[in-house]
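Students often ask why we bother encoding 3D structure as a string. The short answer is that it lets us treat folding as translation between two languages. Here is a chain of 337 residues written in the first language.
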Amino acid sequence: MCSCHTGRELAQSRTMSGELPANINIKEPRWDQSTFVGRANHFFTVTDPRNILLSNEQLENARRVVHDYRQGIVPPGLTENELWRAKYIYDSAFHPDTGEKMILIGRMSAQVPMNMTITGCMMTFYRTTPAVLFWQWINQSFNAVVNYTNRSGDAPLTVNELGTAYVSATTGAVATALGLNALTKHVSPLIGRFVPFAAVAAANCINIPLMRQRELKVGIPVTDENGNRLGESANAAKQAITQVVVSRILMAAPGMAIPPFIMNTLEKKAFLKRFPWMSAPIQVGLVGFCLVFATPLCCALFPQKSSMSVTSLEAELQAKIRETYPELRRVYFNKGL
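And here it is in the second language, the structure alphabet:
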């Protein structure tokens, strides 16, 4: 290798390690969030299923690096790539508003493995009432954990509110699934395979607003572009929750809409007639393949730091903002996931 090349590499590594600048904004994602591609890159990193395999020690280490860096302490030898890696490990396991460690299965990195297993089973065992009841209940229990773990803001839900949301969403999903199952008994088997998707879509419309009902009552924190808190807005919560419902339904769509066609064809083949038990693992694998792409791409549909015009806020909050920040046109808020 020529000496000029190694010299350049040395210079590069020196600026990357010993003199890592203290002004990298790790509060924001690494990629530009105003573009879909930037948001997709961000969420491919956030939803990376390998993050669930990290030990507590690795998580605490990442937390320490991030906290130290925010305080202006740069450990010697830390590279920019290591800093970003620590930030993304930290973000995958700790809540952005409260800073507390999130329940393992509620983290975004657990979405693909958990959803592929549950969805695959929902779509394999959809013919009998007990199976529908069991898998829709499992799915809604999982959704309840995810929605609670990824709620926006720092407003805690009471046990009562949690219970109501959970029971209502499960009832809604099971009722939709059983009702549609009864209707589709007389149509082609292919249409019957789409019943679980309709049930999941209906349940999302019930589950997410109910799990986040406190935000609809009290509002979610809104800030200016520099993160200064201006107050709480229920109108911002409505926009945030609508965007999350849309992206969650679309997230489930490929995994629940593509495999039925493939499975319908496969089940007519000799292989699955000979090994019927292979049907669930194949279905889970197909759903998993779809979800690896659908999860980050649908999370990326709307910016995580969502915004709305000051004129769309509640009248009293508008008046309060006009007094303090007369020039302000837009407010920002974390939409949740």
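Translate back mentally: Residues 1-18 have pLDDT under 50 and may be disordered. Keep this in mind for the problem set.
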